[in-house]
Design brief:
It is built from 3 helices and 39 strands. The protein is mostly beta strands and 598 residues long. Strands 20, 22, 23, 25, 26, 28, 29, 31, 33 and 34 form a 10-stranded parallel beta sheet that branches. A 7-stranded antiparallel beta sheet has the order 9-10-13-12-11-14-15, with no helix packed on it. A hairpin with a 2-residue loop joins strand 5 and strand 6. The termini are far apart.
């Protein structure tokens, strides 16, 4: 029995900290005095399991010597360890990455006594706030600048074949794309190492070379992902080669992209992505023909999402919200101000006592009345997904306000919604704030005697008769509405994204295009559908539906050839995100459709 008691005691001692024990930062890499490389991650280790929902940009960030935040992403390595991966470098001058070369940097970790700082899974706050200084290398042109995670060679750089295995044709007026399965050193990329050659099939003298230089090339690095974060079918490095002279698809011969014998392109450890140089001739040569635009019209359609051209703001009732358009891509919106979802699905009616709710979804049912707190001060109702107000919403405080949201924003340029809400809480501002991570849908009447702020990661969709004090109706995000007694004033506030996925339930976001012409003759056949997508921690679907009628899922097809021929179509981009893990939402960079005229 004494052995059994001793075993139980040892087992109890090995279980780790008990709830309520202090949460401290135990380790930080790099070590003091060590300069880190430009793509090297930072490592933070804590004494206890950290609550992922408390890891937000307002609690944990990296900044340079001027206080500017460094671009990058936090990843959970274990329940007690976090890694910060800086944005990778694309430019030869090394200025486009997350770190600033040769400058001192600082990691800021917010803990006690700050409200809402980093905390353990049982709610115990981090014992204090931390300032963790570190330095970044300032490499000379030949110095080591990057950490190579595959140091014993370089993967080959391929042309014309995407890492997923799809053929990447060279099309008229588009760049030639090259991919490598590991990142490359941007300092070693030189446009003069590449050129376009023309191979004439009609040269009558076989002793003369049939190849002549046709054009110089501008080569740019458009992607250079971290090796350790790559997903299946992803390329680490992507290059675009743009000819200085237009390639004429009507020529009978072939073109080739030629890499010169002494090409300098290397990986992070100095290895070349090209095969060994031959005794004569170029280092590498890729032969291709240019695919033309059809004489009677286009045979392809490419959506690059550089602006809202072709995109519709039509509401899709069966999703949580509209996708966010960022220059060159679509992605899932999830502002940190949408909250942590700890209050679950909220249905508001009757007397509502919430002063700061964190709902998964919020709704006011049709025909019901929700009466918010009459006490002066801020009332903030946050929904991670859609906010559906179908009934009536009221708030009567009889009070006044010393400051308004517009006054505070004017004095704090570049501030975020989170910053504004912290101020409202500290100053006990008499404001009413409705926040949706997805769409903020207002259809019933709203009668409020305080300043009103509407925030949507997706889109504000207001059809309500919204009555508020004159000049005190504000919005942040896309959209707006009709039926208001006054115009909505847009506030220029940042909506940062979380570092850790805060979702409590699965969410779906979508966007549909306007009707797109097919630009084809009477008879045609769809050939290729190519989607430039990153699934991240979610899933992306590209669907097609007729150009008329409701946007219903059962009307959507997975390929356009299933739709009636010779009619316009609409493209539906649907993204699904599950809870848990790091916040790494899906993205779509482009959609490319092509067809063959019969």
């Amino acid at each position: 029995m004494r052995w059994l008691s001793l075993m139980l005691l040892l087992t109890a001692c090995s279980r780790g900290p008990e709830p309520g024990e202090e949460l401290i930062l135990q380790g930080f890499r790099p070590l003091e005095g060590q300069r880190i490389l430009l793509n090297e991650p930072l490592e933070l280790t804590f004494s206890r399991d950290v609550d992922p929902s408390s890891i937000t940009p307002s609690n944990l960030w990296v900044e340079d010597h001027q206080g500017r935040r460094c671009a990058g992403q936090w990843r959970v390595k274990s329940t007690r360890m976090l890694l910060f991966w800086p944005r990778t470098v694309l430019d030869s001058n090394l200025s486009s990455g997350g770190y600033r070369p040769g400058r001192p940097h600082l990691v800021r970790v917010v803990g006690f006594p700050a409200v809402g700082g980093l905390r353990a899974q049982d709610g115990e706050p981090l014992n204090r706030s931390y300032r963790l200084p570190f330095d970044v290398v300032d490499p000379a042109p030949t110095d080591r600048a990057f950490l190579d995670f595959s140091p014993y060679g370089c993967k080959p750089l391929v042309v014309g074949l995407h890492p997923s295995g799809l053929r990447a044709p060279v099309q008229e007026d588009e760049p030639i794309r090259l991919w490598c399965l590991e990142p490359l050193d941007p300092r070693s990329l030189h446009s003069e190492d590449f050129s376009i050659w023309y191979h004439d099939p009609w040269n009558p003298n076989p002793e003369q070379s049939t190849a002549t230089k046709f054009s110089d090339v501008r080569v740019s690095m458009v992607q250079n992902r971290h090796s350790e974060l790559l997903l299946q079918n992803q390329g680490a490095c992507e290059l675009e080669c743009t000819p200085e002279t237009r390639l004429d698809p009507s020529r009978n011969g072939r073109f080739s992209l030629r890499v010169h014998r002494n090409a300098r392109l290397k990986d992070y450890n100095g290895y070349s992505p090209w095969p060994a140089a031959s005794p004569s001739g170029p280092r590498f040569e890729f032969y291709f023909r240019v695919e033309p635009v059809d004489a009677q019209g286009q045979r392809r359609l490419r959506l690059d999402f550089l602006d809202r051209e072709h995109l519709s703001s039509q509401r899709i009732p069966w999703v949580d919200g509209e996708l966010r358009l960022q220059p060159g891509r679509l992605t899932v919106p999830m502002p940190t101000c949408a909250g942590l979802g700890g209050d679950g699905e909220l249905t508001l009616e009757g007397s509502v006592d919430f002063r700061d709710s964190h709902g998964v979804q919020i709704r006011v049912p049709q025909g019901k009345v929700a009466v918010l707190s009459s006490k002066p001060g801020p009332v903030v109702l946050r929904s991670q997904g859609a906010w559906n107000q179908l009934g009536r919403l009221e708030r009567v405080t009889g009070g006044s306000w010393e400051s308004t949201p517009s006054q505070w924003v004017a004095e704090h340029p570049g501030a975020s919604v989170d910053d504004l809400l912290k101020y409202a809480e500290q100053a006990n501002c008499n404001w009413t704030v409705l926040i949706a991570g997805g769409d903020l849908i207002l259809k019933g009447d709203i009668e409020v005697d305080t300043p009103v702020l509407l925030v949507a990661g997706g889109r504000v969709r207001s059809e309500a008769r919204l009555n508020s004090p004159v000049g005190e109706l504000y919005k942040v995000g896309e959209g707006g509405g009709s039926g208001n007694t006054q115009p909505m004033r847009t506030l220029n506030l940042v909506m940062p994204e979380p570092g850790i996925n805060p979702l409590r339930i699965k969410q779906r976001y979508a966007l549909v295009t306007s009707s797109l012409p097919r630009w084809v003759a009477d008879r045609y056949e769809w050939e290729h559908l190519k989607v430039g997508a990153h699934d991240g921690s979610g899933r992306t679907e590209v669907l097609f539906l007729p150009h008329k009628g409701p946007v219903e899922l059962d009307r959507c097809m997975t390929h356009p050839r299933a739709l009636p021929p010779n009619e316009p179509l609409r493209v539906l981009i649907l993204m699904t995100v599950e809870p848990g893990g790091s916040w790494d939402p899906p993205t779509v960079d482009f959609i490319h459709l092509s067809w063959r005229v019969q």
